[in-house]
Specification:
It is built from 26 helices and 20 strands. It is an alpha/beta fold. The chain folds into four domains: 7-196, no CATH class; 201-415, no CATH class; 460-485 and 534-722, 3-Layer(aba) Sandwich (Rossmann fold), CATH 3.40.50.410; 489-529, no CATH class. The radius of gyration is 37 Å and the shape is extended.
Length: 724
Amino acid sequence: MLDCGFAAAADVFDECYAAARLNITGDELPDFLDPARVIGKLGRGAEPLLAFLEHWPDVVEVTGLAQSATLPPAMAAIRSLQKSPNGPAVTPLLQTLGAVAERLRTAEALQHYLTLALDLATRTSGLIHGHHVTEPSPALPDFLLQAPRLLGVVSLAGLKRWLDDGIRLYGDHPDNRRAYFALASPDSRAILQREREGTLFADVEWRLNLTLAALWQDDSLLVPYSTAFTDVRLHPYLAADGMRLPDALEDKDGISGLDRYRAMLAHLAGHRRWSLPLLADNWSPLQRLAVETLEDARIDTLLLRRFPGLKPTLLALHPQPAENTCDPAAENCLRHRLTCLSRACLDPLHGYAAPLISEFAGKFHDMLADGEASTRSIADLALAYVTRSRRPSDQFANVHFTDSEVDYRDDNRHLWRFIEASAEPVGLPPRHYPEWDSATQNYRPDWTAVYEALHPAGRAADIDRLLEKHATLARQLKRLLDLLKPQDRVRLRYQEEGSELDLDVAVRALVDWKSGHLPEPRINVSHRTNGRDISVLLLIDLSQSLNETLPGSGQTILDTAREAVALLGWAIDQLDDACAIAGFHSNTRHEVRYHHIKGFSERWDDPVKARLAAVEAGWSTRMGAAIRHAGQMLSARKSEKRILLVLTDGELADIDVADPQYLIADTKKAVAELSTAGVTTFCLSLDPKADAYAGDIFGRNWRVLDRIERLPEQLPMVYLNLTR
């Protein structure tokens, strides 16, 4: 099966294969044999193959992971060594890989270890002229053989520092360098002792598992992580594969590494027991930070009720920032204030004089007096605190971090649920717009994504039939339109293109041509109207509520709206006004769809009619983003009068927003932004309850249509009144 011809391998193959079958799932067994065949043909004799057969099943067993997660990086390291003069190191790598994996426990950590080994090989191999590797690393085999012992003393972070020190100290002394990495020199052992990091996760894992099972009846896996390969300071966290904890902890503030692990574990278990996720899209980053801080305080409070003996540990590990160490004039002090509040929630003897801290610590305890409270109620309290305590400097990038790190608490990624945007629409990339947060009285930058596209086409004949249905109304409109049409037309001569020939100029041009001279090409006349310098954009709310059926009519609100827009489009075409028509709806802030139905330069012809005929309703109404996008287009127009006419049938809403007042405030802000830019916004609402909010948004520029069936008659009239 191995196709290698090594008698030693044949003697042990059956035994090794039986062990592999116990630890490796059946569908991955071929992936065990294939690399074995590769290793057997490296040209290094039988030793690498024997080492792989004997030790690789141990790697799979101790990590508890699928072979597919650990084998590719291992084989990549083997191939890298084989291509260099360090090929003989493949054998010690494979001989110790099982013991190393038993200390590291995860595929991620194993990958980091292999990276360290390859880095050592690269930095300690002999070079010619600084370029070509010709001599193997004298240190690498010794390091690989000592790796299990080393990882029994230090974490991956400590191991990395120990390696770096050895390379730096003995870069020019190959013999001393080999002694260093073989742990044969006093310097090596002294530096190793210095890098010891208190308590290693691997040494206390069994105790932590017992604690989790006995106190919480929780059988979650405990998975270590290393901070040696990232610049980001990691906190414990809840992940799909279990509870993630650092691979080593030092004693701190009189608390042992083991007790720090227990505090972290208790806090994580408390979150699993008492926390419920919230919709992250509803909160700004600053608000989320406040929610996380107070929710952590709630979990700790409930922990202390259940295990009072934890209190000295938690108070020792929770920082107690001095009250006046952060300068709000120069620094972002929100983290500092929140840490003070968190401390006050846990420690009745906090000693803070700020009235707001005492007030909200009191409210916190009142909420928990009769029960466990909830994540939702704590979130409301956090929002109230941010609103009451906010300062302009909370937006500063210069954040005050001193004494604000509560490192036994997790990073709270489990606390937030994000609404994933649906498949990104094909077409133009999204345009991002801010959104007004009424709670903080500030913008959320680049908060909404607007996708614009040309609306798909249907059948233009359907719109023609609608116009025939309203022929009587069209004739009435025609008489009004004739009165509104500007009469002061200006005749423009000497045009290369125009509506008619300029006969005098044309005759002269003909004479010139007959006589052999270059004729005048500008022989046309065009006309310009001076009376109506208008640009209007009709923005149609295409939310799901338009699919409701009107009582007694048998048609939907959307059908009626389509008839009204068809009449309006025809009327505008008669006036020759510059007009665009678009529709919008939303599926969270991540996806606001903006559909072009008619452009400013398009005539009322079959392509436009076909798009209108195909209009469908769905999703929600996030109006502020759509208004901002429409306003961008109107602001670019040079017309004397620019009008945004909004047609909507209901209250503002979106599935990622619980409070409709939030969207009302944002839309009001968007309307004000357009007003500042010289664009007038008018809303025609079909919602009988619009009196409650429309005035707040649009001021006096709104109207409610009580009888929706009259929309085809009223929409053109509203337009005519606006554009007189």
